[in-house]
Design goal:
Oligomer: single chain
Strand content: under 5%
Distance between the termini: 54 Å
Low-confidence stretches: 1-8
Helix content: over 70%
Structural class: mainly alpha
Order of helices and strands: HHHHHHHHHH
Mean pLDDT: 91
Radius of gyration: 19 Å
Largest sheet: none
Shape: globular
Length: 198
C-alpha cells in the first residue's frame, strides 16, 4: 500500500494559502479590517492578485477561513486541557472554558478582531455555532456527563449561552482597564454557570 503524497503543485498551493492567512493575520494586527483589501493582502503575502483569487473569491472568504481555523484550534486545545484536568464541578468547568477562551483571544489578536467585531459571515457563523460543533459541543458533552439528557431544549439553552457569552466577551474587551474587564468576566462566569447548570 502506497502512502499518499502531495504533489509539488499541492505543496505550492498549500504554501500560498498559508501565506495568504499569515498576511491577513499580520494586517489585522496593524489596521482596521475595513482598510484591508484583497490587493493589500496579496502584496503582504507576496502573491499575485490572480493567485489569491485562485483560492478565495473575496476578502470575506479569507476572514471566514481564518475564523474557522481558529475555532478548530481553540476547540482542540480546550479538549486537551479538559482531558488533562481532573473532574470538575459546573462552576470550575465554566471558569476553565472562559479563561481558556480569553487566553486564546489574547494570544490571537487577528481572531480577536474578527470575533469581537462580528466580522464572520452569517452563513459561516451559523454553521459553527450549533451545540454539536465547536466548543459548544464540549459544553454539551459536559452537561451530558451530569446526567442531563440531550434535547432540543438543551440545544437552545447552549445556543443562548453561546450568544450571550459572545456579547459579554465583547463588552469585557471594551472596558477601559484590565481590572474592569476581569470584573465583567467574573460576572459572566456566574451568569452562564447559573443559567446552564442552575
Amino acid at each position: 500500500m502506497h502512502s499518499a503524497r502531495r504533489t509539488p503543485v499541492q505543496e505550492r498551493s498549500n504554501d500560498t494559502v498559508q501565506q495568504i492567512f499569515a498576511a491577513t493575520s499580520s494586517l489585522l494586527g496593524k489596521m482596521p479590517l475595513e482598510q484591508i483589501t484583497t490587493s493589500r493582502i496579496a502584496v503582504e503575502a507576496g502573491v499575485s492578485i490572480g493567485g489569491l483569487y485562485r483560492f478565495f473569491p473575496d476578502k470575506q472568504a479569507i476572514i471566514d477561513a481564518i475564523a474557522v481555523r481558529a475555532v478548530d484550534e481553540f476547540r482542540a486545545s480546550l479538549e486537551r486541557r479538559l482531558e488533562e484536568t481532573g473532574p470538575l464541578d459546573p462552576c470550575q468547568f465554566m471558569d476553565l472554558v472562559i479563561d481558556a477562551y480569553v487566553a486564546f483571544l489574547d494570544a490571537r489578536p487577528d481572531f480577536r478582531t474578527i470575533a469581537l467585531g462580528r466580522h464572520i459571515s452569517a452563513t459561516t457563523r451559523e454553521s459553527h455555532v450549533s451545540a454539536d460543533i465547536g466548543p459548544a459541543a464540549l459544553v454539551k458533552r459536559f452537561i451530558g456527563s451530569l446526567g442531563i439528557p440531550e434535547s432540543s431544549d438543551l440545544d437552545l439553552k447552549i445556543r443562548i449561552a453561546t450568544e450571550t457569552g459572545e456579547r459579554l466577551i465583547g463588552f469585557a474587551y471594551s472596558q477601559p482597564t484590565e481590572e474592569a474587564r476581569a470584573r465583567v468576566i467574573a460576572e459572566m462566569k456566574q451568569l452562564l454557570a447559573g443559567y446552564l447548570f442552575g
